């Protein structure tokens, strides 16, 4: 019989699939790593497992304890599924820009969800960082994973995502592309691939317009789970060779193309990562092998990116098709 002992054992070993349509006009092989194949539907299952394993080892999380975290949803799902399997409680603090369907998913796994305003500074007492800090102090037996600063986040990608990509490309990968949120994915995976290749793999970050990582003015944007207005410790900028700045409209147009043309029903940060990947791939030769990581599933965005009325109300054209040839180079 072939089965896993628990859903936790199904985390990782996600597949690569070649992008065939949105890459029109590009010579390089562009492979997407499908992180929604993780049981919780995102790459964040990986960090959740590593962070909880380490907290148990270090005595920070004891039986019956409560996990308190500021999360845009995916980390919450990962933490919630591990917590329920191991008997912990979960309280998640999410900014109000996070769609109601994403919050419902967290509740479905048995977690409690606290909603805070998005439009406040990080050091405002109402911000999701500060509210989660306060709850972690008030609740007895609370453990705050703090995905922004916890080294076990990037470490999980160094130990799993990187080796999987290296193995599945037979060491032929030349470029790795990832969107940057906490920076854990690009830092851990990028560090592994750089070491494994002797420094030849080029690491490409993709950042939303309005975020700190790619410079320029910091302002609000709609794409979720990526970009930052403070520098987290999980991000090591020395790992990243180039960074592309991508706007909401392009990210959402590509997200919808991925569903319609590649059969990949993924979230907005995946569309954003693919726009950055295509930009970086435009001038690459046919021998180049690029892997772009698609962090999560489209199910959390049904009432937003995949809702024509929402798209129009925000000023985005739901029928926009931005071909690779129209994506401006760097
Ligand atoms: N996309 C989505 C939807 C996410 O939730 C996250 C995690 N915040 C990312 C991308 C970025 O991953 P990381 O935090 O590892 O940079």
Automatic annotation (TrEMBL):
Query: What sequence ranges are listed for the domain Tryptophan synthase beta chain-like PALP?
Result: 9-296
PROSITE patterns linked: CYS_SYNTHASE
Is Transmembrane one of the keywords?
no
List the residue ranges of the region (Disordered).
Answer: 142-163
Assigned keywords, A-Z: Pyridoxal phosphate
What SUPFAM superfamilies does the entry give? Tryptophan synthase beta subunit-like PLP-dependent enzymes
* Pfam families tied to this protein: PALP
The prosthetic group or cofactor this protein requires is: pyridoxal 5'-phosphate
Q: Which residues form a coiled coil?
A: none
Keyword Transcription applies: no
Checking InterPro entries in the record gives: Cys_Synth/Cystath_Beta-Synth (IPR050214), P-phosphate_BS (IPR001216), TrpB-like_PALP (IPR001926), TrpB-like_PALP_sf (IPR036052)
Q: Which PANTHER family match?
A: CYSTATHIONINE BETA-SYNTHASE
UniProt protein name? Pyridoxal-phosphate dependent enzyme
